[in-house]
Pentatricopeptide repeat-containing protein (Salix koriyanagi), 533 residues
Amino acid sequence: MAFTSTLKYHTWFPFHHHHHHHPASHKPTSNSTLSFATTNHERLTTTTDPAIRLSPNFTPTQLLHSLRREEDSSAVIHLFYWASKQPNFKPSSSIYKEVLQKLGKAGEFDAMKDILKEMKISLSVIDNDSLLVFIESYASFGLYNEIIQFVDAMEVEFGVVANTHFYNFLLNVLVDGNKLKLVEISHSNMVSRGVRPDVSTFNILIKALCRAHQIRPAILLMEEMEDFGLLPDEKTFTTIMQGFIEEGNLDGAMRVKEQMVEAGCVVTNVTVNVLVNGFCKEGRIEEALRFIEEMSLREGFFPDKYTFNMLVNGLSKTGHVKHALEVMDMMLREGFDPDIYTYNSLISGLCKLGEVDKAIEVLNQMIERDCRVEVATKLLRTIQMKGITLTPHAYNPVIQALFRRKRSREAVRLFREMIEKAQAPDAVTYKIVFRGLCQGGGPIGEAVDFSMEMLERGYIPEFSSFYMLAEGLFSLARVGTLIKLIDMVMEKAKFSENEVTMIRGFLKTSKYQDALATLGGILDSRKPNRAYR
């Protein structure tokens, strides 16, 4: 693919200021019934009775805070019932809702219903929001049929009449759980009960239809909104655009975008990014760049982190890695962090071109920006699986990052993996591992064994780390081990006879600090003028 102009000549390339647009607010969805085609704690125990920690003269705020601190569901129930018996207890929907949420996380559904009965007695009415906790909790355990049963029973048992917001929440949970038949049933119930839909209701149902690959019915449903005095918003249009893109019909998505503009709906970054993603998915990167340029001039669009990530991904996957690196540099200058998928595609693209050193540079840059170290480890192994023999330069920053995050076992495991599958560790690698083990990265015996291994391979330990190990051995009365290590250091570092005699003299007279100070002074005078952070 030949770019009509290099990246730097696109009007949005020299970034001046940001125009961050936020997507339209999420509102609810429709009325005519739908038919979908068939498509394929851990508990923390408390050592103290929670009631004991709360004064009988507690305020509602203090009770609420105490409930929020509890993780164990039985402790929550105990505290709630204890509080309800105190003379100054004032029931409120916020307290009941907090108890319901705690029980819901533990899957204590019978206990939740008991609390709901208490709420009905104490407050006379139950608000819709408290019932949403049931829907959310059932969904978190995958109990979608139980949601429908609960909704059917709540009006009879608790006298609650579901409103539009309630149905929107219910429908959205079912759509996100991909329970489209239950969406159909719930929407039918909504219609039969005369609950009026709003824009969010339509948006949720359109999302459901698009997930069922029924784009035409989704468009018809959008057109039906006018019958209810409602107008489609950006969410409505972009959902249908996304549906077309998932079907591989980018031209259809672009037609919806034109329809959106004609309807007077404001185009924000959300819309542009949906379409840029469509171009990138089809490998039409040059068109994506032209579209961004056009939207920049016409709508004042400015790329955000999602735009950048999609472009870097798209450029990398289509072999334009050099351009991808340019875009990532711009992205970093603008203060946006690439995501894991961007790093992965960029590193893979560089490896395919044989640019292994550049791939490692990107990996190291990723670590420096505090990306999750397990992600860096995974990417390192991905490079390795491509049959590329990596150098210590690739491994050292990842091993160091693991030690800095107190993940010494993983660091040592990666070091051993490096010995087996990559080029041999260098002096810097040994320094990193030894320092990590001596700074509290594991049992002292492991640090001792590693220091011996290091010396046997001809690498002299860094004295500051060796001194920490020496202090640990001395505090554990393992003087014999310390003397043995000092002897090994002197032998491998080729100390002169006079130097050896002096240090051994200090050791024989138990002047260990003098021995270590002399050892350190001699080593410092010999080491190269080079530091590794």
Q: What stands out?
A: Residues 234-302 form one domain.
